[in-house]
Design goal:
Elements (H helix, E strand, L loop, with lengths): L1 H10 L4 H10 L10 H10 L14 H12 L3 E4 L4 E5 L4 E3 L4 H14 L6 H6 L2 H13 L4 E2 L10 E4 L2 E4 L4 E3 L22 H8 L1
Length: 203
């Protein structure tokens, strides 16, 4: 949700401070927003500038390549389950609202603005073009994965605060390349006590 909020605010011309203010107004996101590092990361990784799509042709293939350029870090298509997965800066989760199709429409729209009166722009305005772009993307090597990839390392534990490497007992920043979909409800607290566990060890 924070990632989607950042995208919406960027399109409206808002800045990072506006993003922080809106997060703190949301009861579900206010606690998450206390971690400045992950808030800044969500803002930085949200929708790139339209100018970053310069150089792509006004064809379905060109839009498909532009879609890859814009969303390669945030989407994967699982050919085992037949669903898109979205990276939310701490874990991957199945996307159930056809966000990829929506983003394909936006890329079509952004590219069409370069020559809005052309026949190519009118073609890209059709739903069939967005559907074609999404189908291109599903097979693109930047997005295509299978179910075996998710949560494949049993020694990496996803948490809201980052990833715990159970081999070393260390916490590090979450990485999309770990392909973690499962996550604990809370992050580790180095100052937390564990009296019952210590009592068990003594017994």
């Amino acid at each position: 949700r924070a990632f989607h909020l950042a995208i919406r605010l960027k399109r409206a011309g808002a800045d990072f401070q506006n993003f922080v203010e809106e997060l703190n107004k949301d009861d579900d996101l206010a606690d998450w927003a206390q971690d400045t590092r992950q808030v800044r990361r969500a803002w930085q990784n949200s929708l790139p500038s339209v100018h970053e799509l310069d150089g792509f042709s006004l064809t379905e293939d060109g839009v498909g390549l532009a879609f890859v350029e814009r969303h390669r870090d945030s989407l994967r298509y699982d050919h085992t389950s037949g669903h898109w997965f979205l990276w939310d800066q701490t874990k991957w989760h199945q996307e159930k609202t056809r966000l990829a199709f929506h983003w394909a429409r936006e890329v079509c729209r952004d590219l069409a603005r370069r020559d809005p009166t052309s026949s190519a722009a009118r073609t890209l305005a059709k739903a069939a073009s967005a559907s074609a772009v999404e189908r291109f993307a599903q097979a693109d090597r930047a997005f295509a994965v299978t179910g075996e990839l998710w949560d494949s390392d049993p020694f990496l534990l996803g948490t809201p605060a980052g990833t715990v490497d159970l081999r070393k007992g260390t916490l590090r920043e979450a990485s999309s390349g770990d392909y973690i979909t499962r996550q604990t409800s809370v992050g580790p607290d180095p100052d937390a006590g564990c009296p019952r566990w210590l009592q068990f060890l003594e017994e």
